[in-house]
Amino acid sequence: MIHNVSSDSPIGIFDSGIGGLTVVKAVQAALPSERIIYFGDTARVPYGPKSQVTIRKYASDDIAILMRYKPKMIIVACNTVSALALDVVEKACGDIPVIGVLKAGAELAVKATKNNRIGVIGTQATISSNAYASAIKLLNQEIEVVSKACPLFVPLAEEGFIDHPATKLIAKEYLSEIRQQAIDTLVLGCTHYPILRRVIEETIGEGIRIIDSAEAVALRTKQLMTESKLLNPARKASAPHLLVSDLPQKFSLLYQLFMGSELPDVELVEV
């Protein structure tokens, strides 16, 4: 049993901005009675173009904010942090379990592919780190991984440009190369990307399985909470507690857009 943690303790989730809400949504769907504390580092988004040193520092700041709430588990909803600073988070968490979106997404993709050709799209930092390709190859040496950085997808998602002509144009630019590689599975290697899923699906073409690691994370969370007997027995669902480092009003509006819910309470915190 983890010290000072009970089944009533919250699950902490963090991301560079609003992307991690895709994980919040999936975890809520799988575990409706869990309390969720979410931190989006909206002051410093995007993480993808930054250096590894900076990303590791940000990860350390982000986890320090969530640890104040004594969570029973941490979900790293940022693929860039999962790729470059998961060890920083694990060290800060001690014996609290940590799930990174990257590994969950890689496992799901390996299960899904039929022709052993997987595409991965993500931020510059995630793709340069080669972490997805490594995680996939560890599970199955035979798989060919085609990776592509799509840095503009994050700002487009943060602007709420879900069905915008600009998004379609940029998606075409980024994905045309991957389309020719005969992949049958595409990993959305950034939690912002499911927000743009419709455009990505239309651009990449039919018959390609899209892997949204949020769903994989939710399943893994449920499994871990069940094994450690830390599932919240409460029968009522509670709204997540939302923390941001900047622009709470904008975050509220985008939250409504993606979660399809009423205006949430968003608390501003200092990093």
Please write out the topology.
Blueprint lengths: L10 E5 L5 H10 L5 E5 L11 H16 L5 E4 L2 H6 L1 H8 L4 E3 H12 L4 E6 L1 H6 L1 H9 L4 E6 L3 H6 L6 H15 L5 E5 L7 H8 L4 E4 H15 L13 E4 L3 H12 L6 E3 L3
Parallel strand pairs: 1-2, 1-3, 2-9, 3-4, 5-6, 5-7, 7-8, 9-10
Helix pairs in contact: 1-11, 2-4, 5-7, 5-11, 9-10
What does this structure look like?
- The chain is α/β, with parallel strands linked by helices and 271 residues long.
- The protein is built from twelve helices and ten strands.
- A six-stranded parallel sheet has the order 4-3-1-2-9-10, sandwiched between helices. A four-stranded parallel sheet has the order 6-5-7-8, with helices on both faces.
- Helix 12 (248-259) links the parallel strand 9 (241-244) and strand 10 (266-268).
- Helix 1 crosses helix 11 (213-227) and helix 5 packs across helix 7.
- The model has no long low-confidence stretch (mean pLDDT 95).
Q: Gist?
A:
This protein is of the alpha/beta class and 271 residues long. It has helices at residues 21-30, 52-67, 79-84, 86-93, 101-112, 124-129, 131-139, 153-158, 165-179, 197-204, 213-227, 248-259; strands at residues 11-15, 36-40, 73-76, 98-100, 117-122, 144-149, 185-189, 209-212, 241-244, 266-268. The strands form 2 sheets. It has a 6-stranded parallel beta sheet with strand order 4-3-1-2-9-10, with helices on both faces. Strands 6-5-7-8 form a 4-stranded parallel beta sheet, sandwiched between helices.
